[in-house]
Amino acid sequence: MVADRWFASSKIHHECGGYHADLKLADRRWVCPRCGGLVDRNANAARNIRDWTGPVTDRDVQNPTPSWGKEPRTGCQERSDTDAR
């Protein structure tokens, strides 16, 4: 699934459709200008994208392998569990 680059998933309130035109990247929560609700930017965007694409069913998933494949790209290294420590 690829959403349109300019789809305003963060700026449109999922509950009421209110639009926050001046939302900055640093704004993690905002108040909807339409209904006054407190909106969590990430959760709101996720709901908007989910509803924009529609439900995904098992029959829609034919190849669960990521599009970038299983091999690391040239110049990348595998990460081991010890790297996180």
What does it look like?
The protein has a domain at 1-56. The model is unreliable at 65-80 (pLDDT under 50). The longest helix has 13 residues, at 41-53. Helices cover 15% and strands 7% of the residues. The chain contains 1 helix and 2 strands; from the N terminus they run E-E-H. By secondary structure, the chain is of the alpha+beta class. A two-stranded antiparallel sheet has the order 1-2. 7% of the residues are buried.
Q: Mind describing the biggest β-sheet?
A: 2 strands, antiparallel
- Kindly estimate the percentage of residues that lie in beta strands according to DSSP: 5-15%
Helix content: 10-25%
Average pLDDT taken over every residue: 76
Notable characteristics:
about 80 residues; globular; alpha+beta
SSE layout:
Elements: E1 29-31, E2 38-40, H1 41-53
Antiparallel strand pairs: 1-2
Short description:
This protein has one helix at 41-53, and strands spanning 29-31, 38-40.
